[in-house]
Amino acid sequence: MLSHDAPLLSGDALRERFLALDTFLLAQQSLWREKPFIQQKLNWEAEYPELAVWLRARSLADAEACHANPYALSAPQPFADWAQRAQQLSTLGSFPDTLLSQRPLRMQSGIAERKWQQIEAFASAVHSGAGQSLAATNNWLDWCAGKGHLGRYLAWPNAHLECLEFNSELINSGQAISHKYLAHAQHRLCDVMSAESAAPLQQAGAVIALHACGDLHTHLLRQVNAQQAAAVALAPCCYNRTQSEFYQPLSAQGQASALRLNRDDLGLPLTATVTATNRERRLRDQSMAWRLAFDILQRELRGVDEYLPTPSLSAAWFNKSFAQWCADLAKLKGLPSVPVQNWIDLQARGWQRLAEVRNLELLRALFRRPLELWLVLDQAIFLHEQGFRVELGEFCASELTPRNLLLLACRV
Ligand SMILES: C[S@@+](CC[C@H](N)C(=O)[O-])C[C@H]1O[C@@H](n2cnc3c(N)ncnc32)[C@H](O)[C@@H]1O
């Protein structure tokens, strides 16, 4: 659901919200840093036993039912207090709808419906409010463009478009599509992390980036400043795809925070799976239940009561019997050979652990959006500090994509 009642964040509200989130996340870090998947017992359980017992008693289906909206869970206190605060701090307005002229129907061909709707919503937001001056450009730069669908949508019918992308197949097919709709479109092979992206940033009237991952979007924002780019519209994603071990805050306020976020922490906002299909969910559940069962087994085999990371495994691995899968994984990890087990019982314990893990994770889930907003606010404040007029809000419903935050910034 999009909220048209709450305001977009801009000006001083950016800093105020950041500070409130910073205080909340720091105060509650013992809750959201704990990982039920790798820790059999969580430290906060001793402090909140009633909540822990209640969560552990629920089924996998119970957990699934409120995965997307953990705030609504009527769990023992202080869960509801935390949920209310997290929700309050995550509330954000959405960009008003703008009626844009209809693009040619064929332009949508080959684009998944959900992606097309994201593009429409992004373009609509870019044309609203502060974005209007950004949208007036005749010169768009699509950063990490893929096939450049978003850039083409915005540049149609007469504007110039430059797309930067480092996958040559995407460039070739993007260029072929652009030829059909635009007179001035250039899809360029370019590693945006290299110095080659500097000149396009200087020349562009507006830079757009839909779902540029981790370093690709933080680098963009630093470069928007360094190259004196005029305006940017960014919907960030995959905050954990970064070379550095810890998040490097961009804004002075972010740098002053005591919050240190490692790559694992940066993955927390991405743990919502609203867009997975039923088949994907079933496979994911099986993989996790088996890994949790293996975790019980490996602790016994090694005589060490500690989680042992396992690598990602191809789908073919899950065509094996559970017993064979355990034996092969033990071999892969260099463990002693697995003695005969009651495999049915071990597998059932894995599924039981999965139900507990998923329910305990509902507590972490309360912090997904606050943490994401903290990150994007750091980026918004950075641009504000550099003299941009900034607006932050949601550009589409989370059902369309959970990465629905949009940062619009125009140099004043
Ligand atoms: C998540 S996709 C988003 C694509 C497009 N903006 C969209 O929304 O459909 C990220 C894109 O970034 C590209 N990419 C990744 N690293 C890059 C780099 N260093 N330089 C240029 N493009 C890169 C990938 O090939 C991919 O097409």
Low-confidence stretches: none
* Helix content class: 40-55%
CATH domain class of the domain at 105-269 and 368-411: Alpha Beta
Described by its quaternary structure, the protein is: single chain
Rounded Rg: 23 Å
How does the helix and strand content classify structurally? alpha/beta
Helix and strand string, N-terminal first? HHHHHHHHEHEHEHEHEHHHHHHEE
Strand content: 5-15%
With helices defined by DSSP (H or I, 4 residues minimum), what is the helix count? 18
- Rounded to the nearest angstrom, the distance between the terminal CA atoms is 32 Å
CATH topology of the domain at 105-269 and 368-411: Rossmann fold
Number of strands: 7
CATH superfamily of the domain at 105-269 and 368-411: Vaccinia Virus protein VP39
> Could you describe the largest sheet, including whether it forms a barrel?
7 strands, mixed
What does the overall shape look like? globular
Index terms:
single chain, 412 residues, alpha/beta, Rossmann fold, 48% helix, binds S-adenosylmethionine
